[in-house]
C-alpha cells in the first residue's frame, strides 16, 4: 500500500514536468523573434499562403488563446502536417518511434553489460594497472564524438573488413519487415519465428547500437566504479569484515547492491545523453527513426515536424525517467512517502 | 584585507601548481596539450600553408601526402589547414558557451542554495524544466526556433549546460551553509551576498572546476554535433563538426582522411579538457597544499 | 568475576604496526605487549593518534591497505594471529573474536534488514541453518534487550534509534558467542543516558557469556568505571598499565598523571585539570569570585521571555491528500532565562533538547517563532536575522563553535579568520593597528604568533580551538556563547582550553553561556546551570545546588549516567562540594 502511494505521488509529480515541457515547446515556436507563420508555411511560401497559414493556425490571436488552441490540438493529437512527407506529424512520429526505441534500448543493454562489470573490476583492483586502463578507456569513451565513432566503425567493419552490412537502415535489401506487433524488429521476427529476418535485423542493429553504447559506457562505468569504491570503503563493510563474512558475500550482497543505487540514479542522465546521441547515430546509419525525421525536417525548415519531434522526445524522456524512478523505489527501502 | 595579512602557508599558488603538475604525468600531458591547443587557436590561422577556403577542383580527394599532410577534401581544399583554422572557431564557441553558462548557472544555483525557501523552489522548477528535455534535443529546438546562426548555437549550448553548474553550485552551497565558519562570518558582520560570493562559492571552486573542464569537452561535442546535422555553422566555414559531416559520404567509399583528421582533432581537444579536470581540482583545493 | 590464572586468552608481544604514506613509513604502534585473560575487561585508553584502535585492527587483520605489521606476534588461545591465512582469520572474526565500532548507524548496511544482517553472520559461521536462522536471530535480539524482537527483526537501520542500532551491532558481534569482544569507542556520539545503557549491556553480556572484553576509548573516566584493567597508550607506545583503581589513585607515568588530572570527574576546580606544573603558574582563582557580585549590580545582560521556535514540517503525502496542515516540530517550547553580566551559565541537555536552537536564536543566527530576546535592555528579537548583521549590537554577542575543524574557513589563514570581525565590526583598516591587535589576541589565547600564517589543516585541534576563541573575543563581546567548545578535543587539550576560558573571564569580565552535554565540565566552569529537555527548561539554579541536590528526575538521571571512575574522592565522605553514590 505504501509503495502504491509512492508510485502515485511520483506520477503526480510528473504532471507539472509535462506541463513545463508543453509550455516550453509552445514558447519555442511562438514567442521567439521572427514570424512564426513564415516558419510554419515553409521557405517556399508566398505572402498569401503565409497569411493563410496565419489565420489557419490562429497565429494572429493573443498568446493565451493560442496556448489554449495548442493544448487542444495536443490533446486531440493534432501536431500539424509534415511538409516533407505530407503526412500528419503524429503519424510520422508514431510509425518511426519503434525504430529509435529499439536502437536506444538495445544500446543500453550492451552498455550496461560492459560498463557495470568494468566498473566493478576497476573498483576491486583500485590503483592497479587494470584500474588505470579502465579509467583510460572510460575517459577516451567520453571524449569520442558519437558521429565520429559511428563513421569510424563503418569504415573499419564495413569497408575494410567487410564484416558489417552497409549502413542503410534496419534491414538489408532482401528482407521484408516482419508483421507489426511491437514495432521492434528483433522481437517481432522472433515472434513470427522468422529467423532469417531476425538475423538480418540484428546484423544491421549491431554497429549503430555499439556506437551509441560506447557513448553511454563512460558515465555508467565511472559511476559504478565510484559507487563501488564508496560502498567498499563504508563502515558497514568494515563491520561485515569484522564479523567474518566471506569476500564474495561482502562484494555481492553488501557492496554491489548498495552501489547499484547511485548507478540507477545515473540512468536518468544517461537517457538524456542517449536520446540526443540517438539523433546523430540515426543520421550516420540512415536509421529510419524519429531522429533522422527531425534532421530532414530541420533542413526543410519543416517547423511543425521539429516541434513535434522535440515534444515527443521530451515526453519519452519523462516516461523513461519515471521507469527509472519506479525501479529505484523498489530497490531502496529508504524511499519514504514524502521523501 | 589589510596588507599585513599574507595569504596561504608555506607554498604560493604557483609553487603548488607546479608541484601538482610535476607529480602527476597525466596532468602534465594534459596541460601541454591544452597549451598546444591554445597556441594553435591563436596563431594557427597565420601559420597554415594553404588558404582553408581555397578550392581547387582538380586536386580533389587526394590522400595524405607531403604537400597535403592531411589530404584534400571534395573541393580540393587542404584538410590540414582547415583542421588548424577550425580550432579557433570551435574553441570560441565552447568557451563562450561555458563561460556564460557558468556565471549565470553558478550564481542562480548559489543564491538558491543559500537563501532556500521559495526562491530555491522556483529555481529548482526552472532547472527541472530544462532538464526534462534530452539536452541535445533541446539545443536543436532552440537553434531551430531562434534561427540558424553561430550565436544561437552558443546561446543554446549555454542554456543546456546551465543546470549542471546550477546544481553543483547549489549542492556545494547547501553543504557549506551550515558550517561553523559560515555562521562565524555572519557573526563577524558579513552580509549574505558577501559571504556567498566572497567565501562560499570560492570555497566550492574545486568541484566546480572539474565540472567546468568536463563541460568544456561536452560543449565542444555539442557544438560539433549541432553542426554535423546542419545547424549553426554553414559551408564553406571550417569547423570540425561540419567537416566530418561533409566527409561522411566519402568514408564509405574509402576516402577516410576527410573524416579522420577533424574527428581526431575533436577527440583530442575533448580528451584534453577531461584530463585537465582532475589536475585543476588538485591545484585549487587548499587542503592539498603542504 | 572468574579469572583464569592459566594461560592468557589473548597475548600480544612486541607488536609494531606501520603505515606507508607519501612521506615514508609512519609507525602507528611501537613495540606493545598486552595480555587478556578470560573474564577480564581491559580498557585501552589514549588520545587521538595514540594507536589504540590500530592495535585491534592489526590483531583482527582488518588494517587499511596502507598498514602492515612489521614486527611482533599475537596469539589467541594458542593460535597465531599474525601472520596467518586470511581464511583462518575469517573463521576467527565474529566467531572467536568480535569487534564493534563507533557510529552504530553507519556500521549497519542501510538497505538490508537488521535480521538479515545478523542471520548472515550466523550462517557464515554455521551456527544455524536457513530454517533456524530467523529463530536464532530473534533470540540474539532478545539477548541485547531489544523490545518486540519479532517485529524489529524485519526493520531497516534507518527505522531504529542510535542506541538501538548499537544494540543490533552488539547482537551481530555476539551472535556466535565469541570469547573476546573488542569495543572501539562504542559510545562516542551517543547521549549520556544511552551511553550508560549500552555500557551496562556490554558488561552484563560479558559476564553472562563468560567472555573477555577490550574497551578502547579516549574517555579515561569511562574506562575507570567499567574496566578492571587499564592500559594507557601515548603516541603508539604503552606508557602504563595496571588495575583501574591503581591508575586513578596512584599513577606513575607523567602522561598518565596528566590524563588522570585532566579527567573532569572529581576535580575540585578547573586548575586541578592541568598538569601540576602549569596549575602552579596559573592565575589565582580568587580574582574570579568578585565578578559575580559586581555583575549583579547591573540589570540582566540577557533576558529570554517565552521564547519559542517551531520548524514547519514537510507535508507528507497523506496530509496533502487529506488537506491536513503539516505537523510542525516544536524545538523550543517557551523558555525563560536571565544571564547577568560576567556570569557563567551552563545550558545542559541531551541531543534534541533544543539547546543548540536556543543558542542560535540568542546569537540571532535564527529567528524565533515568538517570544522576546532582550540584550542590554534592548529587544533584539525585533530585528530580523539579516538586519542584525549590520546592527551595532552584533559585536557584543559572539560565539565559539563546537567543531574547530568545521568552524574555520579552510581557505583563510588563522590571521585572516581572526581579523574578519576586526575589519567588519570594529572598522579597523589601519594595518599597523591590526597587526598589533592580532598579536594581542594571539597572546591572550596562548597561540604562538608563528601559527598565525597557517591554514586550518596545518593546525592541531587545540590550536584551531584557540583561533576560534580569538576570533570570538576580537570584537570584545559582553556575552560569549560557547557551543560544546571542547567536545571534539582530546581531554588534555580540553583541560587547557577550559582554563584558558577562565583566564579570559578574569581578564575581560565576559559573561558565558556554556552549552554542553557534559555535566562535569559545566560544574567546573559555570556558576549557574540550566537543564533542558524536549524544548523546555526542567531545572535551573546554582551549579553546586543542582548537581549535589537535583530536584527534577531527569537531572538525577543525567547525573547518574555520567561515568564514575574509582577516585579517592569516592572513599572520602568529606569531599565538600560534590557528593556521589
Secondary structure elements and their pairing?
The complex is a heterotrimer of chains A (339), B (290) and C (581).
Chain A: H1 2-30, H2 36-41, H3 47-56, H4 63-76, H5 89-124, H6 129-143, H7 146-160, H8 185-191, H9 195-232, H10 235-242, H11 247-284, H12 290-299, H13 303-331
Helix pairs in contact in A: 1-4, 1-13, 5-6, 5-9, 5-11, 6-9, 7-9, 7-11, 8-9, 9-11, 10-11, 11-12, 11-13, 12-13
Chain B: H1 13-23, H2 25-47, H3 79-115, H4 117-131, H5 135-146, H6 150-177, H7 180-187, H8 192-203, H9 205-228, H10 240-251, H11 257-284
Chain C: E1 10-21, E2 24-36, E3 41-45, H1 52-60, E4 67-76, E5 79-80, H2 86-92, E6 97-100, H3 114-124, H4 130-143, H5 149-152, H6 162-174, E7 180-184, H7 192-209, E8 212-217, H8 220-226, E9 229-234, E10 237-243, H9 244-249, H10 254-262, H11 276-281, H12 286-295, E11 302-311, H13 317-321, E12 329-339, E13 344-348, H14 355-362, E14 370-375, E15 378-379, H15 385-388, E16 397-400, H16 414-424, H17 431-444, H18 461-473, E17 479-483, H19 491-508, E18 511-516, H20 519-525, E19 528-533, E20 536-542, H21 543-548, H22 553-561, H23 568-571
Parallel strand pairs in C: 3-8, 3-9, 6-7, 7-8, 13-18, 13-19, 16-17, 17-18
Antiparallel strand pairs in C: 1-2, 1-4, 4-5, 9-10, 11-12, 11-14, 14-15, 19-20
What does this structure look like?
- The complex is a heterotrimer of chains A (339), B (290) and C (581).
- Chain A has helices at residues 2-30, 36-41, 47-56, 63-76, 89-124, 129-143, 146-160, 185-191, 195-232, 235-242, 247-284, 290-299, 303-331.
- With 339 residues, chain A is mainly α.
- Chain B is mainly α and 290 residues long.
- Chain B has one domain (35-50, 69-285): MetI-like fold (Orthogonal Bundle), CATH 1.10.3720.
- Helix content of chain B is 72%, strand content 0%.
- Chain B contains 11 helices and no strands.
- Chain B has helices spanning 13-23, 25-47, 79-115, 117-131, 135-146, 150-177, 180-187, 192-203, 205-228, 240-251, 257-284.
- Chain B is elongated, with a radius of gyration of 23 Å.
- The model of chain B is unreliable at 1-10 and 286-290 (pLDDT under 50).
- Chain C is α/β, with parallel strands linked by helices and 581 residues long.
- Chain C folds into 3 domains: 8-84 and 180-192 and 205-263, P-loop containing nucleotide triphosphate hydrolases (Rossmann fold), CATH 3.40.50; 97-177; 289-314 and 326-562, P-loop containing nucleotide triphosphate hydrolases (Rossmann fold, 3-Layer(aba) Sandwich).
- In chain C, 37% of the residues lie in helices and 23% in strands.
- In chain C, the strands form 4 sheets. Chain C has a 6-stranded mixed beta sheet with strand order 6-7-8-3-9-10, with helices on both faces. A 6-stranded mixed beta sheet of chain C has the order 16-17-18-13-19-20, sandwiched between helices.
- In chain C, strand 7, helix 7 (192-209) and strand 8 (212-217) form a beta-alpha-beta unit.
- In chain C, helix 3 crosses helix 4 (130-143) and helix 3 (114-124) runs parallel beside helix 6.
- Chains in contact: A-B, A-C, B-C.
- Chains A and B meet through helix 1, helix 6, helix 7, helix 11 and helix 12 of A and helix 4, helix 5, helix 9, helix 10 and helix 11 of B.
Amino acid at each position: 500500500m505504501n509503495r502504491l502511494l509512492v508510485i502515485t505521488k511520483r506520477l503526480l509529480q510528473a504532471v507539472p514536468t509535462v506541463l513545463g515541457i508543453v509550455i516550453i515547446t509552445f514558447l519555442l515556436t511562438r514567442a521567439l523573434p521572427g514570424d512564426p507563420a513564415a516558419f510554419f508555411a515553409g521557405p517556399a511560401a508566398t505572402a498569401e499562403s503565409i497569411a493563410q497559414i496565419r489565420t489557419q493556425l490562429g497565429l494572429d490571436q493573443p498568446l493565451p488563446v493560442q496556448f489554449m488552441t495548442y493544448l487542444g490540438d495536443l490533446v486531440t493529437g493534432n501536431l500539424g502536417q509534415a511538409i516533407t512527407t505530407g503526412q500528419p506529424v503524429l503519424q510520422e512520429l508514431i510509425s518511426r518511434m519503434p525504430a529509435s526505441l529499439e536502437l536506444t534500448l538495445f544500446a543500453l543493454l550492451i552498455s550496461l553489460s560492459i560498463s557495470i562489470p568494468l566498473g566493478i573490476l576497476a573498483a576491486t583492483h583500485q590503483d592497479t594497472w587494470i584500474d588505470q586502463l579502465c579509467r583510460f578507456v572510460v575517459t577516451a569513451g567520453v571524449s569520442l564524438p558519437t558521429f565520429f565513432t559511428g563513421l569510424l566503425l563503418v569504415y573499419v567493419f564495413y569497408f575494410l573488413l567487410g564484416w558489417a552490412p552497409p549502413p542503410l537502415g534496419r534491414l538489408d535489401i532482401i528482407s521484408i519487415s516482419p508483421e507489426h506487433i511491437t514495432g521492434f524488429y528483433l522481437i517481432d521476427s522472433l515472434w513470427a519465428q522468422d529467423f532469417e529476418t531476425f538475423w538480418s535485423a540484428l546484423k544491421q542493429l549491431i554497429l549503430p547500437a555499439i556506437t551509441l553504447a560506447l557513448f553511454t559506457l563512460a558515465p555508467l562505468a565511472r559511476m559504478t566504479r565510484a559507487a563501488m569504491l564508496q560502498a567498499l570503503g563504508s563502515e558497514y563493510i568494515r563491520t561485515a569484515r569484522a564479523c567474518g563474512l566471506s569476500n564474495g558475500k561482502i562484494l555481492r550482497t553488501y557492496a554491489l547492491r548498495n552501489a547499484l543505487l547511485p548507478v540507477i540514479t545515473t540512468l536518468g542522465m544517461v537517457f538524456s545523453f542517449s536520446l540526443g546521441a540517438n539523433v546523430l547515430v540515426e543520421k550516420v546509419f540512415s536509421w529510419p527513426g524519429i531522429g533522422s525525421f527531425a534532421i530532414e525536417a530541420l533542413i526543410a525548415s519543416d517547423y511543425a515536424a521539429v516541434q513535434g519531434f522535440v515534444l515527443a522526445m521530451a515526453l519519452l524522456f519523462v516516461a523513461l525517467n519515471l521507469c527509472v524512478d519506479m525501479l529505484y523505489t523498489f530497490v531502496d527501502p529508504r524511499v519514504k512517502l514524502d521523501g | 584585507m589589510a596588507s599585513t595579512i599574507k595569504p596561504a602557508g608555506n607554498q604560493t599558488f604557483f609553487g603548488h601548481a607546479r608541484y601538482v603538475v610535476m607529480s602527476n604525468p597525466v596532468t602534465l600531458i594534459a596541460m601541454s596539450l591544452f597549451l598546444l591547443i591554445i597556441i594553435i587557436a591563436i596563431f594557427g590561422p597565420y601559420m597554415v600553408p594553404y588558404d582553408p577556403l581555397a578550392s581547387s577542383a582538380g586536386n580533389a580527394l587526394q590522400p595524405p601526402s607531403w604537400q597535403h599532410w592531411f589530404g584534400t577534401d571534395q573541393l580540393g581544399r587542404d584538410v590540414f589547414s582547415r583542421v588548424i583554422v577550425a580550432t579557433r572557431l570551435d574553441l570560441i564557441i565552447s568557451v563562450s558557451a561555458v563561460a556564460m553558462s557558468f556565471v549565470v548557472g553558478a550564481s542562480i544555483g548559489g543564491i538558491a542554495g543559500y537563501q532556500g525557501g521559495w526562491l530555491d523552489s522556483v529555481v529548482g522548477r526552472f532547472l527541472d524544466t530544462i532538464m526534462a528535455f534530452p539536452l541535445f534535443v533541446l539545443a536543436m529546438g532552440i537553434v531551430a526556433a531562434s534561427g540558424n546562426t553561430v550565436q544561437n548555437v552558443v546561446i543554446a549550448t549555454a542554456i543546456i549546460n546551465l543546470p549542471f553548474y546550477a546544481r553543483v553550485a547549489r549542492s556545494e552551497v547547501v553543504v557549506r551553509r551550515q558550517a561553523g565558519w559560515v555562521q562565524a562570518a555572519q557573526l563577524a558582520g558579513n552580509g549574505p551576498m558577501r559571504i556567498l560570493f566572497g567565501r562560499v562559492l570560492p570555497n566550492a571552486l574545486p568541484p566546480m572546476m572539474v565540472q567546468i573542464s568536463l563541460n568544456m569537452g561536452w560543449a565542444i561535442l555539442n557544438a560539433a554535433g549541432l553542426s554535423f546535422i546542419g545547424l549553426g555553422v554553414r559551408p564553406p566555414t571550417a569547423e570540425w563538426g561540419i567537416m566530418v559531416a561533409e566527409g561522411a559520404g566519402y568514408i564509405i567509399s574509402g576516402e577516410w582522411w576527410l573524416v579522420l583528421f577533424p574527428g581526431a582533432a575533436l577527440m583530442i581537444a575533448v580528451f584534453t579538457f577531461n584530463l585537465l579536470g582532475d589536475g585543476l581540482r588538485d591545484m585549487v583545493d587548499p587542503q592539498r597544499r603542504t | 568475576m572468574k579469572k583464569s590464572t592459566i594461560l592468557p586468552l589473548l597475548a600480544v608481544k612486541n607488536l609494531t604496526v606501520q603505515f606507508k604514506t607519501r612521506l615514508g613509513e609512519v609507525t602507528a604502534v611501537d613495540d606493545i605487549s598486552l595480555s587478556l585473560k578470560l573474564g577480564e575487561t581491559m580498557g585501552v585508553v589514549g588520545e587521538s593518534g595514540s594507536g589504540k584502535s590500530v592495535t585491534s585492527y592489526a590483531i583482527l587483520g582488518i588494517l587499511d591497505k596502507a598498514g602492515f605489521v612489521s614486527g611482533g606476534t599475537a596469539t589467541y588461545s594458542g593460535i597465531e594471529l599474525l601472520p596467518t591465512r586470511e581464511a583462518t582469520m575469517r573463521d576467527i572474526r565474529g566467531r572467536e573474536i568480535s569487534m564493534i565500532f563507533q557510529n552504530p548507524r553507519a556500521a549497519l548496511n542501510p538497505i538490508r534488514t537488521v535480521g538479515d544482517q545478523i542471520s548472515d553472520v550466523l550462517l557464515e559461521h554455521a551456527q544455524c541453518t536457513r530454517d533456524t536462522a530467523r529463530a536464532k536471530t530473534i533470540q540474539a535480539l532478545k539477548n541485547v534487550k531489544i523490545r518486540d524482537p519479532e517485529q524489529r527483526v524485519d526493520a531497516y537501520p534507518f527505522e531504529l534509534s542510535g542506541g538501538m542500532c548499537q544494540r543490533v551491532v552488539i547482537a551481530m558481534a555476539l551472535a556466535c558467542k565469541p570469547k573476546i569482544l573488542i569495543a572501539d569507542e562504542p559510545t562516542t556520539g551517543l547521549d549520556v543516558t544511552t551511553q550508560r545503557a549500552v555500557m551496562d549491556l556490554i558488561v552484563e553480556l560479558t559476564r553472562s557469556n563468560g567472555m573477555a572484553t577490550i574497551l578502547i576509548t579516549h574517555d579515561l573516566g569511562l574506562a575507570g568505571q567499567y574496566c578492571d584493567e587499564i592500559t594507557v597508550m601515548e603516541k603508539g607506545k604503552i606508557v602504563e598499565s595496571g588495575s583501574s583503581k591503581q591508575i586513578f589513585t596512584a599513577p606513575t607515568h607523567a602522561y598518565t598523571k596528566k590524563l588522570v588530572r585532566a579527567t573532569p570527574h572529581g576535580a575540585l576546580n578547573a586548575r586541578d585539570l592541568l598538569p601540576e606544573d602549569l596549575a602552579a603558574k596559573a592565575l589565582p582563582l580568587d580574582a574570579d569570585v568578585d565578578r559575580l557580585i559586581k555583575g549583579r549590580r547591573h540589570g540582566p545582560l540577557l533576558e529570554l521571555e517565552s521564547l519559542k521556535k517551531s520548524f514547519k514540517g514537510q507535508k507528507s503525502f497523506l496530509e496533502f491528500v487529506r488537506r491536513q496542515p503539516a505537523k510542525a516540530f516544536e524545538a523550543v517550547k517557551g523558555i525563560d532565562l536571565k544571564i547577568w553580566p560576567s556570569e557563567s551559565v551552563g545550558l545542559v541537555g541531551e541531543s534534541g533538547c533544543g539547546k543548540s536552537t536556543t543558542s542560535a536564536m540568542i546569537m540571532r543566527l535564527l529567528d524565533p517563532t515568538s517570544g522576546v530576546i532582550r540584550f542590554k535592555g534592548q529587544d533584539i528579537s525585533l530585528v530580523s536575522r539579516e538586519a542584525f548583521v549590520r546592527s551595532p549590537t552584533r559585536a557584543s554577542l559572539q560565539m565559539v563553535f563546537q567543531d574547530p575543524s568545521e568552524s574555520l574557513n579552510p581557505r583563510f589563514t588563522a590571521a585572516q579568520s581572526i581579523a574578519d570581525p576586526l575589519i567588519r565590526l570594529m572598522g579597523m583598516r589601519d594595518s599597523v593597528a591590526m597587526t598589533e591587535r592580532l598579536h594581542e589576541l594571539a597572546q591572550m589565547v596562548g597561540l604562538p604568533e608563528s601559527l598565525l600564517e597557517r591554514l586550518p589543516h596545518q593546525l592541531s585541534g587545540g590550536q584551531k580551538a584557540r583561533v576560534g576563541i580569538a576570533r570570538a573575543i576580537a570584537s570584545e563581546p559582553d556575552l560569549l556563547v560557547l557551543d560544546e567548545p571542547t567536545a571534539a578535543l582530546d581531554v588534555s587539550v580540553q583541560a587547557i582550553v577550559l582554563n584558558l576560558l577562565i583566564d579570559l573571564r578574569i581578564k575581560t569580565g565576559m559573561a558565558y553561556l556554556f552549552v554542553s552535554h557534559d555535566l562535569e565540565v559545566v560544574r567546573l566552569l559555570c556558576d549557574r546551570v540550566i537543564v533542558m529537555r524536549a524544548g523546555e527548561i526542567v531545572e535551573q539554579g546554582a551549579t553546586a545546588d543542582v548537581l549535589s541536590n537535583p530536584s527534577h528526575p531527569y537531572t538525577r538521571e543525567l547525573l547518574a549516567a555520567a561515568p564514575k571512575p574509582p577516585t579517592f574522592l569516592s572513599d572520602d565522605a568529606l569531599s565538600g562540594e560534590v557528593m556521589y553514590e
